[in-house]
Write a structure and sequence with these properties.
Largest sheet: 6 strands, mixed
Helix content: 25-40%
Number of domains: 1
Strand order of the largest sheet: 2-1-4-3-5-6
Structural class: alpha+beta
Strand content: 15-25%
Distance between the termini: 15 Å
Number of strands: 6
Radius of gyration: 13 Å
């Protein structure tokens, strides 16, 4: 079950992929994860729920991406309330993200955002 990755990729356009130095038509879930891992940084500019994240959380998110095993993506992505990948996508691509998880809105905000992406999820699926 790769709905997390599938729907993120579907929501991005070529302008987004230019930032990652790749082509939309040449990317799949595995290569996208590789690209995010390659560009992994501390997401110091992302406001999560309206606040900057503490250094410890920034470091934990960085490590979670660095250590992420993409070989398990078919088992699903356990999207957390402060998901490291959503933080990184927001930071790298200058994208605001709204993630509605079972009627609770989780917001990722970045200064000078280029656009807003909206996702929803429940206990089993992640979708646009």
């Amino acid at each position: 079950m790769t709905c997390f990755w599938d729907h993120i990729l579907q929501s991005l356009n070529q302008e987004d992929f230019n930032i990652l130095n790749t082509q939309k038509n040449n990317i799949n879930n595995n290569s996208f994860i590789d690209s995010l891992k390659k560009h992994n940084i501390l997401c110091e500019n992302v406001l999560w729920q309206g606040s900057l994240m503490h250094k410890k959380l920034l470091e934990e998110n960085f490590d979670a991406i660095k250590d992420y095993n993409k070989d398990n993506i078919n088992s699903g992505h356990d999207c957390s309330t402060c998901d490291p990948f959503l933080c990184l996508i927001s930071e790298l691509l200058k994208i605001d993200i709204d993630h509605l998880y079972q009627n609770s809105l989780i917001q990722y905000r970045i200064v000078d955002s280029r656009k807003l992406l909206k996702f929803r999820s429940d206990s089993g699926h992640f979708y646009i």
